[in-house]
Amino acid sequence: MIHIAIADDHILIREGIKTLCAETDDLRIVLDLSDGEALLEAPAQLADIDVLLLDIGLARSNGLEVLGSLQAMGCAPPTLFLTMHPEHELALRAMQAGARGYITKDSDPATMRDAIRVVANGGYYMTRKGLDFLHSIVSMQGQAQQATGPVPQAEQKTGMLDDLSPQEQRVLTMLCQGRTMKEIGYDLAIGEKTVSTYKHRLMAKLDISSTVELVRFGLRNNIG
Question: Which terminus of the chain is less hemmed in, N or C, by CB atoms within 10 Å?
Answer without folding.
Answer: N
